[in-house]
Amino acid sequence: MITVEHVTKAYANQQHAVSDLSFEVPQGTILGFLGPNGAGKTTTMRMLTGFMAPSSGRIAVAGFDTVKQSMEARRRIGYLPETPPLYNELNVRAYLDFVGRLKGLKDKKQRQARIAEVAEACWISDVLNKTPNKLSKGYRQRVGLAQAIIHKPDVIILDEPTIGLDPKQIQETRKLIKSLGGQHTVILSTHILPEVQMTCDRVIIINKGRILAEDTPENLIARSAGLQRVTLRVHGPQAEIEAHLKSLEIVQGVQYQRSDAELHTFLIESQAEGIQARLAREMVARDWGLYALQTAEGSLEDVFIQLVTNEQGGTDA
Amino acid sequence: MSTIWAITLKELKSYFVSPIAYVITAMFLLVSGYFFALILNVTRDAGMMTYLFGNMAVILLLISPLVSMRLFAEEQRNKTLELLVTSPISDAGIVIGKFLAALLLLALMLACTLHFPILLLVLGNPDVYPIISGYIGIFLMGSAFLAIGMLTSTWTQNQIIAAVSAFSISLLLWFLGASSNLAGSGLGQVLNYLSLNTHYESFAKGLLSLSDVLYYLSTIGILLFLTIRSLETRRWR
Fold first, then answer.
1. B78 touches chain A (CB under 8 A)
2. B234 at interface of A, judged by CB pairs closer than 8 A
3. Mutation site for B-interface testing, chosen from A49, A76, A102, A107 by largest number of B Cβ within 10 Å
4. Relative to the CA of A134, which of A94, A283, A301, B163 has its CA 20 to 30 Å away?
5. Which residue of B has its CA nearest to A53?
């Protein structure tokens, strides 16, 4: 549905905001664009929507080039910029009607029907007659979302859709975004990790204008895990235990953490399946007192920090 | 077409919801009414409306920037420009839609002064042609001011800067002819020709000269073209 090929964007007298970006988004996917602030997320989204043209490279949305066949591409895109683009002079109903016309919904009845539908989908039916300056941040964001989907676009692009919302609103907005997947292709940017984990089918991690990783959230987490980490608390002679752990062929790394009298804590890294069971057997066989055996969950946060910090270390050196 | 009209309607709504339209129209009527009363007192000749048109042109020079300043500056400050330019409407469509709204407001303001000539027609026997051509001329001149203001409005997100730039440029173009004596005959003629004011004189005399109409239309055309270009530069910045 979306093809990005070797896209670079250079601003006047500044380093590249985005360099040599390539990725594809299949139809119906929810793709998360994850990166620290200033990573090039907004720039990429603005190029996808045709607000800016890439300095080099090519972007196609639903098969239409965003520069050469801009109108065709734009017809198929709904876009929520970082700040919801609302007019203080127009109440929500008049605003959605205006956007509907702008996006090519010519028939008045059809527009009214769509306004009712999106108002219900975005939980804004109760504020249709209010002007945006009387609305809370959460409502403004949702009106922005309603505006982006009013013309049933194939592609929905959301720049930081949950920023500035309270936890309940964040939860609701995520639910709404998830419900859009399947029939629409959604791209959203965020610097909040759990958001991606909860809503997205695929993740692209981006930093300093470059893609660092692209995969499903599960695979990325597994990759960080690649190694499993197990915390082991055991009662017995510390040096002997440590030596024995290191001698096990399936254990890649042993890290002694702390002792509490005769109770020692080790962090063990291994790629083997069933490492937990094996450790338990080893401890019991030697009559050391096994107190706790805990698998540390890998999180997207780990991958993210690992990738971003590796990158920074790499470029600085 | 329908999308252009959507923009026009939205702009008109903005003008009338925020009371800009009412305030500006009221000011325009107040000041031109004052001049009309003065002229009525001082002169009794057939060209009374001609003097009034001269005064209205100056008032328009002063207030047109206030009409045009918000057209793009506010969209930029509000971040709503991103919505417009990513919608399936060309930059030219956006510019024309907005310009149309400003023109309609100008037409409304001028329509509100129609009671002046009607009063004269009822009470006296003025020349009708200079009144008609005068209205056409003043509308064209006002449109040119608005086109200048719309262009400066794309340069900044600050409405005051947009208005001040528009006012300065309009004033310079208005008085360009005044420097023609200094510039020597060749350049002087060109400057005189480019001056917004020079072309207005024939309308005031009751003449609808094609060349003067074309002058205003092409000036407006060039300004609209520059506005579209100015809007497009954001894609490459």
1. yes
2. yes
3. A102
4. B163
5. B235
pLDDT for A309 beyond 80:
no
Q: Is the pLDDT of residue A311 over 60?
A: no
How far apart are alpha carbons A162 and A173 in whole angstroms?
7
Q: How far apart are the C-alpha atoms of B134 and B40, rounded to whole Å?
A: 18
| Least confident piece of the model among A146-155, A270-279, A293-302 | A293-302
Which of B76, B61, B99, B70 is CA-nearest to residue B227?
B99
Q: What is the pLDDT of residues B59-75, one digit of tens each?
A: 999 999 999 999 999 99
ipTM: 0.89
Dist CA A78 CA A246 (whole Å) = 56
Q: Is A85 in Cβ contact with B78 (below 8 Å)?
A: yes
With CA atoms as reference, the chain B residue closest to A70 would be B88
**Confidence class of residue A219 from pLDDT cuts 50, 70 and 90?**
confident
Nearest CA in chain B to A71: B88
Query: In angstroms, how far is CA A28 from the centroid of its own chain?
Result: 16
Which of the residue ranges A90-94, A209-213, B179-183 would you say has the lowest mean pLDDT?
B179-183
- A315 token code pair: 């470029």
Under the banding of pLDDT at 50, 70 and 90, the label for residue A223 is low
User: Of A47, A59, A281, A14, whose CA–CA distance to A159 is shortest?
Assistant: A47
Chain B residues closer than 8 Å to A96 by CB: none
Task: State which fold the A224-296 domain adopts.
Answer: Alpha-Beta Plaits (3.30.70)
Residues A296, A257: contact at Cβ < 8 Å?
no
B53 CA to chain A: closest CA distance, Å?
Answer: 34
- So where are chain A's domains? 2-221, 224-296
Count of domains observed in chain B: 1
A167: confidence class by pLDDT, cuts 50, 70, 90? confident
The A residues from 205 to 244 touching B (CB cutoff 8 Å) are none
Cross-chain Cβ contact A53/B236 below 8 Å: yes
* Pairs across A and B, CB distance < 8 A: 78
Rounded mean pLDDT of B203-215? 87
The fold of A2-221 is Rossmann fold (3.40.50)
Q: What SS3 state is found at A212?
A: strand
Helix axes B91-111, B20-42, angle to 10 degrees: 40
**Is the Cβ of B44 closer than 8 Å to some Cβ of chain A?**
no
Q: Do A102 and B13 touch (CB under 8 A)?
A: no
Nearest CB neighbour to B14, from listed A71, A75, A87: A87
Decide: A132 and A140 in contact? Cβ < 8 Å. yes
Summarize pLDDT for B163-175 with one digit per residue, the tens.
999 999 999 998 8
Is B19 in CB contact (< 8 Å) with chain A?
no
